[in-house]
Design goal:
It holds the Pfam family Arf. By secondary structure, this protein is α+β, with helices and mostly antiparallel strands. Helix content is 21%, strand content 21%. The structure holds guanosine-5'-triphosphate and magnesium ion.
């Protein structure tokens, strides 16, 4: 899942243009949630370990200046 994302801008620019909003990424163990989160933040593939608890990141886009607090379990 996570590595299958295309570039960050095309995904984020297709979302409604709110000033900021929260997105929760839910899925089965080892589904690619953390990979997807860090792909959105850094636009690159990051090697992961199984998440204990959750990750939360704030992502700002350059195109529309919206900020996206993201978390995943
Ligand atoms: N082939 C392939 N592997 C992927 C893709 N996305 C993630 N992975 C791999 O799948 C494994 C699990 O990815 P994670 O992002 O850690 O999965 P997760 O859903 O956060 O897992 P938990 O934190 O254990 O719930 C890692 O080895 C990733 O490298 C993908 O799109 N394609
Ligand atoms: Mg994880």
């Amino acid at each position: 899942m996570g590595n299958g994302l295309s570039d960050q801008i095309s995904i984020l620019s297709s979302l409604p243009s709110f000033q900021s909003f929260h997105i929760a990424i839910l899925g089965l163990d080892w589904a690619g949630k953390t990979t997807g989160l860090y792909r959105l933040q850094f636009n690159e593939f990051v090697k992961t370990v199984p998440t204990k608890g959750f990750n939360a990141e704030k992502i700002k886009t350059h195109s529309s200046e919206i900020s996206l607090p993201l978390s995943n379990t």
